[in-house]
Structures are given as C-alpha cells and as structure tokens.
Design brief:
Elements: H1 2-25, H2 36-52, H3 58-70
Amino acid sequence: VQRKKRMLLFYLCTDLLGICTEIKLNLSCLFSGWSSERVHEYFVWASEVVRNLKGTNSVLEGKLAELFQERGLTL
C-alpha cells in the first residue's frame, strides 16, 4: 500500500511538472485561452500541492521549485 501511495504521488508530481512546463512554453492549445491571471492561479495552486507532497521526489521537486521561483512562488 505504501509503495502504491508513493508511486501515485510521484506521478502527480510528474504530471504537474509537465503541465507547468507546457504552460510556461505555451506548448498546449489547452491553455492558450488562459489569461495571465488564470496561469498565475494555476501556478499558485500547483505550488501548494507540491508543498504538501514534499519528500516525494527531490529531483522533481527541484525542477518544479525552479518553475515556481520564476513566477515569484516558493515551496
């Protein structure tokens, strides 16, 4: 059970990293209509999620922290 939980948390962090990167690079048409305010709200929400998942994967957390820092957010 613990292993499954850790894997789910890892996948959640991976998904957040992918989505945040897509938004940053404007790679996905899913986010093309988002206002800058909506993008900021998503990054705030994502940073709160990752903050609550600290200890899941330090490499992913570091990459996400870099993306958040670019937007003035910290973990």
